[in-house]
Design a protein that fits this description.
The chain is an alpha+beta fold. It has ten helices and twelve strands.
Length: about 450
Amino acid sequence: MRHVLAILKAPVGAAGSLQRKLTVNILAALLLTILMSVTVLIFEFFEHLEENQEEALYGEAKEILVQIDPDLPGLGFDPQALRFRGVEGAYRYTIFGPAGHAVVGGEDMATLRAQIAQLALGQAAEIAVPNARRGVALCGLIKAERYCVLASAYLPSTDRPVLDTMWHEVQEQTQWILLGSLIVFAAAVGAVRLSLSSLDKVRREALEIGPDAPDGRLSADDLPAELVPLAQAVNTAFARLQQGYKAQRAFAANVAHEVRTPLAVLHSSVDTIHDAALRESLKPDVTRLEAIFEQLVDLARADALMPEAFSKVELCKLARQVSGARAMAALKAGKMLAVTGADTATVAGHEGLLAIALDNLVRNALAHAPAGSEVEIDVRDNPPVLRVQDRGPGVAAEDRDAIFEPFHRGRRPSGDGSGIGLAIVRAVAAAHGADVQVEDRPGGGSVFSIAFR
């Protein structure tokens, strides 16, 4: 069912898209055009019908007038005939004699006589006839005497056969209008999709621009002229971002070079202090300063990481290396550290930075895990995932995004951490196209995951 809906939605585009807006506007314009066409068609039908009826009434009156014979009874007509007495026929006739009164026929009202009396010989004119009928009168001389003939018929709008004929004509013409509109609509939708296809190309180009391809730009060759300035402005913004990105990488490299030497000198200077109490009190501060600096350098390296530096990384081997490096510290704290899961999981990445990210997760788990508990590095495959599980107090749901911000230490800070470790984890994961997640562990504790795509 979803597949069918997707096929039906394809011609009009997704909700909120420019393609759908244009298609809806075209459809609305076509519907308005169809409505106006049908309205004009009905109007023209009645207008031509009235013109034709007027000509027909004139012809009927003229035919009766030329057949008048004053020497014959009823002027040569049967006064009781349907066309003179009844109202059911298509036409009804009344003949007015020289005195101005009806001689044959039943429409002998003062209002009619007054109108007919004003007519000149040979002049045909429309006469106002009651009872939703329409009349045309024509006067002429028959044997030197004035005779006038009034021919009347029901108005087209009240004549059922006429209305049926009109409705049939409208239906027939409307079918062609709808067919033409459908063809126009299909052509318009096709033109819209063809015109917007260049935007899809630009979208794909924009998706390819990133840290691994900072030199990419949007092509404006096939874009509509109205969108070329927008593409140029976006390219200018990309160029500025690229310059800032390069400046950031250069800054990180310069800081690493310029600060390491003074820190080493500071460390050596502290070791030469003769006052043992002062020397021992300063050493932790210097060590902490060195750790914070190294973490900031790691964070900058992760943000500036390029895929060109990637190679094949075996996650299980990486997990064992990190576990081995942290095993002694875990044992001293009365905690256990284990590596479980798949032995063959591999990813393309930077082994050094991935090791730093995993080490930060392990160090964080050991810092919060209670004594006697086990911290587990679980390696998974298809897709590759690194999971670090502990039995600590867990992370509140409202803090699970904030803990990955630089210098955020959570509601229950533990140890002498700087609050940069998890920010490094997120930056390294982002550089590898991976997602970092934290969730509750069944039975208590937390599970931090780096899920590769």
